[in-house]
């Protein structure tokens, strides 16, 4: 069972959440959605609202869902889920039913906001902005992350709800 809290009540370390624990980005509808593992992103404030920033390469299947959907969610897990998170980062939803393979169940925080029910924390986000990363603005270290020149698209999502597992 989840309860909703104000984003300012969140007491998590954003660096640990993203870099160490990872997250699942989920987009689509309850009937048709996809999820992928991410460790790049950020949380903060922009335009006077709490925001989540995510980065997704265009070849990822979740990209297609993000492009069509006005919402996305970020699901964070406790210990014991690393194998499932690794699979969601390595397998494509085009070829694999990641939800079945991981034993995940889809919950809905709205018609266009699917999330993973097994998570301990979910950020529900309304897509407010997107932009492709421009290699002309990258230093050499950043460019080295893109040998295939498959630059991420950045999405900014207003955090409209925070769900914590009780």
Brief summary:
This protein is an alpha+beta fold and 166 residues long. Helix content is 20%, strand content 40%. Strand 4 (41-46) and strand 5 form a beta hairpin.
Task: Explain the overall architecture.
- The chain has 5 helices and 10 strands, in the order E-H-E-E-E-E-H-E-H-H-E-E-E-H-E.
- The protein has 166 residues and is α+β, with helices and mostly antiparallel strands.
- It is globular.
- The termini are close together.
| Main sheet summary | 8 strands, antiparallel
Low-confidence stretches: none
State the end-to-end distance. 6 Å
- What value does the Rg take, in angstroms? 15 Å
**Number of discrete helical segments:** 5
- The helix/strand series, from N terminus to C terminus, equals EHEEEEHEHHEEEHE
Structural class: alpha+beta
Topology (SSEs and partners):
Blueprint: E1 2-5, H1 14-21, E2 23-28, E3 33-38, E4 41-46, E5 49-56, H2 61-68, E6 71-76, H3 82-90, H4 98-102, E7 106-108, E8 114-116, E9 121-132, H5 140-143, E10 153-165
Antiparallel strand pairs: 1-10, 2-3, 2-6, 4-5, 5-10, 6-9, 7-8, 9-10
